[in-house]
Amino acid sequence: MAAHDGPLLSVRDLTKRYGQRIGCDDISFDVWPGEVLAIVGESGSGKTTLLNCISTRLPATSGTVTYQMRDGQPRNLFEMEEAERRHLLRTDWGFVHQNPADGLRMTVSAGANVGERLMAVGNRHYGQIRETATDWLSRVEIMAERIDDQPRAFSGGMRQRLQIARNLVTAPRLVFMDEPTGGLDVSVQARLLDLLRGLVADLGLAVIIVTHDLAVARLLSDRIMVMKDGHVIETGLTDRVLDDPQAPYTQLLVSSILQV
Ligand SMILES: Nc1ncnc2c1ncn2[C@@H]1O[C@H](COP(=O)(O)OP(=O)(O)OP(=O)(O)O)[C@@H](O)[C@H]1O
């Protein structure tokens, strides 16, 4: 079908400067439907800047980002009306923040956190919203009896799982993730990664995930883009890049991090 012919997202010559400082420089890549792309690199390499520009949370200095809408039409995101962009962010996209408090409403119930997104796509039936919210809580391993609790009463891992449920309930086609396992204990991280991997595969989601953790990239992504000082140093299939890195910088990164 025409709607699935091209890439879901095309980034071309994307540059972001903060005054004289380079955030990211002349970046181009495509993301295909159902593909998981990991953006990796050390702190300060420009990963978050790039993610925020692509997701239109931050204005780029130059370049274009084209997104294939649900009707199959490619649209330049930087030329979209603000209201339309916000609608996209609330429905067809998800954004999972490192700190769940940035992606949740901490003072409304877990059920309302999930239900709100359903209302944004036009659901009005209270019973159905609550049923879908309960179902999603169980998919992210939160017991139904916690549905009326506020996320501030949840542990860090539960909050992150709730943030994921809130993002995925509208069946988005593209989810941005910024260090989704970043602030968690190692054992909690492992469980969350497992859960994420299952959901991404079940839902056929396209994901752009920023992480400095190559083990996270290894587990979740199909393709990796390695960044340094705002530039893309190397890109390729995840296993190839991690098992046989070509660029000296990637070799260094892989040997320093994956060696145990
Ligand atoms: N608001 C800002 N104002 C000025 N410079 C910024 C700003 N945000 C980021 N930078 C600079 O842009 C460059 C890229 O930063 P960015 O936060 O995108 O990197 P990162 O790879 O995401 O790092 P981290 O993993 O630490 O978040 C850095 O040199 C940083 O100092």
UniProtKB/TrEMBL annotation:
Q: Which residues does the UniProt record annotate as the domain ABC transporter?
A: 9-254
- Carries keyword ATP-binding? yes
Molecular function (Gene Ontology), one example: ATP binding
User: Which family, according to the similarity comment?
Assistant: Belongs to the ABC transporter superfamily.
What is the protein name stated in its UniProt record?
A: Phosphonate C-P lyase system protein PhnK
What does the entry give for GO biological process?
organic phosphonate catabolic process
- Out of the domains of life, which is the source? Bacteria
**PROSITE patterns with a match to the protein in the record:** ABC_TRANSPORTER_1, ABC_TRANSPORTER_2
Which key words tag this protein in UniProt? ATP-binding, Lyase, Nucleotide-binding
